[in-house]
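User: Can you predict the 3D structure for this chain?
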Amino acid sequence: MKNLITTLFSLLILVACKNDITVKYPETKTVDSTNTYFGVEVKDPYRWLEDDRSEDTENWVETQNKSTFGYLDNIPFREALKERLSSLWNYEKISAPFVEGDYTYFYKNDGLQNQYVIYRKKDNEDVEIFLDPNTFSKDGTVSLGAASFSKDGSILAYSISEGGSDWRKILIMDTETKDIIEDTLVDVKFTQISWYKNEGFYYSSYDKPEGSELSAKTDQHKVYYHKLGTPQKEDALIYGGTSEEKHRYIYAQVTEDDHYLIVTPRVSTSGNKLYIKDLSKPNSEFITILDHTHSDTYVIDNVDSKLFLVTNLEAPNKKIVTVDVANPTPEHWTDLIPETKNVLNPSKTGGYFFAEYMVDAISKVKQFDYDGTLIRDIELPGVGNVNGFGGKKDDKTDYYSFTNYNTPTSIYKLNIETGVSELYWKPSIEFDSDYYESKQVFYASKDGTKVPMIITHKKGLELNGKNPTILYGYGGFNISLNPSFSIANAVWMEQGGVFAVPNLRGGGEYGKVWHNAGTKMQKQNVFDDFIAAGEYLIDNKYTSSDYLAIRGGSNGGLLVGATMTQRPNLAKVALPAVGVLDMLRYHTFTAGAGWAYDYGTAEQSKDMFEYLKGYSPVHNVKAGTQYPATLITTGDHDDRVVPAHSFKFAAELQNKQTGSNPTLIRIETDAGHGAGTPVSKIIEQYADIFGFTLYNMGYRVLPYKTKENIKD
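Assistant: Here is the predicted structure, written as structure tokens:
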């Protein structure tokens, strides 16, 4: 084994210390603002913080950050954590290769580069840098989004994000000369870039809203076609934009054979209509496949006029059906790969379907032909999560990644015809999985529902109730938390920390039924599942309330906010990130109204209003309560979940917190909801989060020890 001695570990010991860093919170003014719902007046004293363009808000952000970093700067081992994060992060990371035109491309990060670089190779020529997003800005805050090649690979259309915003620009490049060949497309948001032949591409966007582009409501999505060589103002409106019918999200995709355009209009993040247009016939009309949003259904492929659809219509765990485009509505569908008891997430490549099933959040993969015949089970490298299995019809080789909570991501090369996998790339990282273990347990939630949770830590962990533990959750939007390796979590576990992830209701781990069980007036199930997970960890001596931190982002930030206001004594530390925290007004910002499938809205009904008000974190902070030590994190350019949610929650907590636990808000500048955040900023964020967490648990970091001493 190579370089064992040089790999460093650290241990923690508890010292008798109190939280002796003084915090002086900035004063946050209140205003006389109220909202009335069904005759009930609700005070909104921090409404002014919703104005992201005001000087008052800007000054508030500046003073809050000054207070927060004044605290964080005094944590004695913060720099040691940052150094260890940087050291472990500093290894080469690459993506699976993919072929476009005459070149094989791949993404690579040398270690600490802020953004991944696209490289390419042609035949026996040397590898060259093709596109380096690190040159977009000095500080790495301009990031690469989508990158889509024309059908012959001669042209690349790629999107960029500035400061983490969801608003994008699209640039068009000649791949041979690497020259930008057209004016930049602007004001693009929530889009795919889907090419038609080599002539142009389809994309989606909203009209720029009145008021702030980072917080004003956007609810009329549109699909456009950009023909190469023409200005953006001449781009044809393909779908959307009518006053009779609004869709908040509309995506367009051209089939691989350039025969059809598929459009999926959505009112919310769940459920879509489905239309198809024959591009081989000039001026053809859209044909309706589904005229309602009662399911999530999409076209995965076609063979001539035969369509292959993935759907959860009357199949909550999903299935693949076939239908002819001449009569594409559900009564004509025929099952190809029927629904099973496990959730299906299929992909296609090389003329086959690869059906990934989630079995208690763990991946199993089966290979089917286009007649629905099972070819084989794909033998995976271990128990964990795979991604990939996607390519073109003529591919002979496919690539997929494998990971779990204690195994760094490796890439495997699959022979599509034989089903044999071989290791393609394994990272050279100073982390040895052999010293760690993951265990899946099932615990009972408040109503008796069995919920799975994976707990990961060093082998030989003593169950003494004193292990620093992060309980991480999400529980919403049909999103599944599958096992995956995180460099930051590896550093946490090096410190003797436990990392626990329950698969809460509201997620997609057990299909649409599991998702729906955590939506609208069943949302409390999600919080109950999370609370029960914390109680399981405490009851089984993994940790105790003094050493437990609860963490989550976005919808998971709501989870943390609701949990800490409902059970303030459950955890010592709360870490809500970019959270949806004002449940009475979330739908009035940017595309927030599209989340109503999961949440409902305060205007929907009196019962829904009362339910939302009953758990909305901003509205349930009570004076005279000791809440956990809290570090709220957000970004000033977050136009997904606007930072006003976090601002208002921080103001409420600082005003009403009792006791010595600090309540801080860390506001990252030139950063959004998370995607595209530079590595340098990510490392700083984790050093602050872990430093804050461990300090408030009373821990100090000792010098690192080598693997040879790890069992001493």
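Residues 1-17, 702-712 have pLDDT under 50 and may be disordered. The chain has ten helices and 43 strands.
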